[in-house]
């Protein structure tokens, strides 16, 4: 079970799902490349789990098409889809041993007994649970259960793998460890994987690409770095990482905040109201004197929140707009930090000033 | 009695509670005890306490063609009712539990309605219905009527088991390649087997114990044991009935003990 035969691409077109008058998914299109690790990221109610259930075949969409490597599967029942799925609560079978759980998909496929033994053993090895085969499920820790669920979902070499918040039941340390382990496993096996989570850090750590979902649609889909650096909507900018938003008026292609002319490398339309999205770590204190820098904004220093390795402070730049600034707690930075209530000036590099649509 | 000192209430001040509890237990058990004792009576009518002792009423029961036939009818009807009501009720409970049915709760209400309708009304209704269908005094008729009476208990018992079961397991089984039926048999059923066993015992006892509907719809060759006992009580006061009752009590105790032991060993395993 070193690598799967061939990873397959997934092509999702026009998937629609309504429950009565409530639209869960609205004409959703999504392409997943062969061997890609794609994460569906969104708040609860964004439709990410419904999409996963539609892919697995447990929920029937009202319209649309799903092709795995060219095969249309939209009408196939779950047991004929050949999709490995890891459930949020693992859904291991408590009346079976670890080996019996992992052998289950092979038995359903009438794999010869000798092959089952061999493949179960190598699956246990893959998730580093050698020798745990005879254990009962309730004798395993959370992380071990997680690994059994993974082994069971992959032992039959499924066409694709789906994971529904598989790490949400683990505590923080183990979760971060399993994130790396899952990523390594994906790299070595190379199966096309769709992963669902509401944890943006988890999505950024693990994914090749992230599809940010909101209100039953994909707001933006991109590589984690690109999503973080260039969010296209207010929702994406606030859901992935932290952002402060400055309302700006664009006149003749130039953004203005009150009477301050701002610069951005982002493409802008010639007029309209937008929000300038700024990441906290990109906000810098400007020197008190000269006013020749770009994107210099005057403000009043607010509270400093100490967070161990870093600190965050809020800066009031007028009109009730507050910018968050974050930096690491180094002695020199801390020493130069203005006191609360002091008038200060901050600067934002033009390349760090992102424009998103207002509202 | 040093441990008493730690208790906020002493055993002495809770004496009334012990007495009350003992009284309740007495009222629950006394009728059965009286019946059992009377069954060993030597006199030819029901008498408590008996003046002399004998086993002749047991002999009378086992040697009487009539009683043996009635027992046979009751057993056959009860077994058939169990075999019909258990899968039917389990399937209904499964469907209601899925929560995907629009009228699932209405279906549930209809399924368990037999439990709130007075049995005598069901008896009369079944009698008139069967009169038209020609099902009175038939094996099929009894099984259908008893199945209707047993279904609420089966549905409620299996539903209770399903509610503490995680349906994701069945979804997992299906995503791993099991057909819906195999997923149910291999994954769901082993985990709700206790509820299903309990439900089948309820179905058996419901049918075996049933008097009122049987009184209306069974007679002649198709008289159930309970119906014959009821008639016999009216016509003659004969300790044979006490002997039969004692046998029934023993049967119930055995069935429930088996269910309990199966349950206990399952719990130890997991």
Report on the structure:
The complex is a heterodimer of chains A (359) and B (270). Chain A is built from 9 helices and 20 strands. Chain A is of the alpha+beta class and 359 residues long. Chain A is elongated and about 80 Å long. Chain B folds into 2 domains: 8-38; 65-269, MetI-like fold (Orthogonal Bundle). The model of chain B has no long low-confidence stretch (mean pLDDT 88). Chain B is an all-alpha fold and 270 residues long. Chain A binds chain B through residues 56-58, 77-79, 81-85, 87-89, 91-95, 104-105, 108-109, 136, 138, 152-153, 156, and chain B through 166, 168-169, 171-180, 182-183, 186-187, 190-191, 270.
Give a concise summary.
With 359 residues, chain A is α+β, with helices and mostly antiparallel strands.
Number of strands of chain A: 20
Percent range of helical residues of chain A: 25-40%
Oligomeric organization of the protein chains: heterodimer
N- to C-terminal separation of chain A?
50 Å
Q: Helical content of chain B, roughly?
A: over 70%
CATH superfamily of the largest domain in chain B: MetI-like
Shape of chain B: globular
Strands of the widest sheet of chain A, in order across it, are 6-7-8-3-9-10
Shape of chain A: elongated
Overall residue-averaged pLDDT value of chain A = 89
| Largest two-chain interface | A-B, 28 and 20 residues
CATH architecture type of the largest domain in chain B: Orthogonal Bundle
């Amino acid at each position: 079970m070193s690598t799967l035969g061939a990873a397959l691409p997934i092509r999702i077109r026009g998937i629609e799902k309504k429950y009565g008058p409530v639209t869960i998914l609205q004409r959703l299109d999504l392409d997943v490349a062969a061997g890609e690790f794609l994460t569906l990221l969104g708040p609860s109610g964004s439709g990410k789990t419904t999409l996963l259930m539609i892919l697995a075949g447990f929920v029937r969409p009202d319209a649309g098409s799903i092709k795995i490597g060219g095969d249309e599967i939209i009408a196939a029942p779950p047991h004929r889809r050949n999709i490995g799925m890891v459930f949020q609560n693992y859904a291991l079978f408590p009346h079976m041993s670890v080996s019996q759980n992992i052998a289950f998909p092979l038995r359903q496929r009438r794999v010869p007994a000798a092959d089952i033994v061999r493949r179960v053993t190598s699956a246990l090895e893959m998730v580093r649970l050698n020798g745990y085969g005879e254990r009962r499920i309730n004798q395993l820790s959370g992380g071990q259960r997680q690994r059994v669920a993974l082994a069971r979902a992959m032992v039959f070499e499924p066409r694709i793998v789906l994971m529904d918040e598989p790490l949400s039941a683990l505590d923080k340390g183990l979760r971060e460890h399993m994130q790396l382990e899952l990523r390594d496993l994906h790299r070595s096996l190379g199966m096309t994987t769709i992963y669902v989570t509401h944890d943006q850090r988890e999505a950024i750590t693990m994914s090749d690409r992230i599809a940010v979902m909101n209100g039953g649609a994909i707001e933006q889909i991109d590589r984690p770095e690109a999503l973080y650096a260039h969010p296209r909507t207010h929702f994406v900018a606030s859901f992935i990482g932290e952002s402060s938003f400055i309302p700006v008026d664009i006149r003749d292609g130039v953004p203005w905040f009150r009477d301050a002319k701002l610069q951005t490398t982002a493409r802008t339309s010639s007029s309209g109201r937008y929000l300038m999205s700024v990441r906290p770590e990109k906000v810098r204190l400007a020197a008190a004197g000269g006013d020749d820098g770009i994107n210099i904004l005057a403000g009043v220093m607010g509270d400093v929140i100490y967070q161990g390795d870093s600190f965050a402070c809020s800066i009031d730049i007028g009109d009730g707009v507050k910018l968050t600034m974050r930096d690491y707690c180094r002695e020199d930075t801390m020493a130069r930090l203005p006191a609360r209530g002091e008038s200060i000036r901050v600067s934002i590099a033009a390349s760090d000033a992102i424009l998103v649509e207002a509202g | 009695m040093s441990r008493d000192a730690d208790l906020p209430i002493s055993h002495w001040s809770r004496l009334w509670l012990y007495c009350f509890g003992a009284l309740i237990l007495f009222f629950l058990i006394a009728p059965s005890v009286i019946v059992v004792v009377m069954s060993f009576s030597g006199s030819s009518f029901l008498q408590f306490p008996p003046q002399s002792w004998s086993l002749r009423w047991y002999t009378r029961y086992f040697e009487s063609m009539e009683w043996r036939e009635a027992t046979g009818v009751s057993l056959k009807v009860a077994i058939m009712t169990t075999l019909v009501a258990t899968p039917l009720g389990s399937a209904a409970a499964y469907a209601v539990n899925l929560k995907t049915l629009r009228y699932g709760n209405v279906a549930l209400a209809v399924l368990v309605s037999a439990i709130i309708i007075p049995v005598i009304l069901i008896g009369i209704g079944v009698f008139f219905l069967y009169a038209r269908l020609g099902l009175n005094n038939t094996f099929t008729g009894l099984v259908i009527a008893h199945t209707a009476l047993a279904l609420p208990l089966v549905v409620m018992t299996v539903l209770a088991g399903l509610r503490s079961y995680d349906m994701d397991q069945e979804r997992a089984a299906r995503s791993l390649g099991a057909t819906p039926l195999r997923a149910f048999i291999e994954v769901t059923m082993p985990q709700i087997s206790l509820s299903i066993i309990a439900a089948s015992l309820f179905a058996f006892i419901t049918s075996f114990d049933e008097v009122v509907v049987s009184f209306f719809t069974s007679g002649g060759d198709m008289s159930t044991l309970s119906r014959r006992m009821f008639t016999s009580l009216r016509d003659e006061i004969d300790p044979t009935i006490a002997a039969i009752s004692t046998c029934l009590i023993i049967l119930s105790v055995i069935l429930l003990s088996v269910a309990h032991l199966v349950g206990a060993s399952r719990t130890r395993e997991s």
